[in-house]
Specification:
There is one protein chain. The chain is mostly helical. It is built from 9 helices and 2 strands; from the N terminus they run H-E-E-H-H-H-H-H-H-H-H. It starts with a helix and ends with a helix. It comes from Paenibacillus pseudetheri. Belongs to the BioY family.
Length: about 180
């Protein structure tokens, strides 16, 4: 792995940590708050591609595990990784990797609407389909109740999917994916 790739991964892990400074929106009926950090997951996949996108989220999870307060609300540590948010957090590298994989596949003919669709499928639906059942199991509620509760995330997550796609299209010329296609 090149130094430049490691720097990109570290920068995006830092970006996701900065997005954690935006105060969470707690929901009374679900123990997982609405956060801005899923925007960073989608950006990492769209902009960096599969390998660096997933690596940036693995690095982010390592920062959480060692106790740095990089999650929204200043949370961090092993307790968070075994709490109600665990499924969502551990789905981040998978989501970023799949978003990146599809972004790389369509890059020569990329369009904003295609990135929005990819972000919704993997950055919204996949994250919820992994996170909600894990949350339900940890909180001892039904998986169905967890999935229904996760519907509260959909409006904001769809907005984040659009924002990530628009930002990626604006920065397309400097994306590492663009560099790969030029070679």
């Amino acid at each position: 792995m090149k130094t430049k790739e490691l720097i990109y991964a570290a920068l995006f892990a830092a970006l996701i940590a900065v997005l954690g400074m935006i105060p969470p929106i707690p929901l009374g009926f679900i123990p997982v708050p609405i956060t801005a950090q899923t925007l960073g997951v989608m950006l990492a996949g769209c902009f960096l591609g599969k390998r660096m996108g997933a690596l940036s989220l693995v690095l982010f999870i390592i920062l959480v595990a060692i106790g740095l307060p990089v999650l929204t609300g200043g949370r961090g540590g092993i307790a968070v990784l075994i709490g109600p948010s665990a499924g969502y957090i551990f789905s981040f590298p998978i989501a970023a990797g799949l978003i990146g994989w599809y972004s790389e596949k369509i890059w020569p003919k990329v369009r904003t609407w295609k990135l929005v669709a990819i972000n919704i499928i993997f950055g919204v639906l996949l994250v919820s389909l992994i996170g909600a059942p894990v949350m339900a199991l940890i909180t001892n509620t039904s998986i169905w109740a967890g999935l229904v509760g996760a519907l509260a995330f959909l409006p904001g997550d769809i907005i984040k999917a659009v924002i990530a796609a628009v930002i990626t299209m604006q920065l397309k010329a400097i994306s590492p994916i663009e560099e790969k296609t030029q070679i």
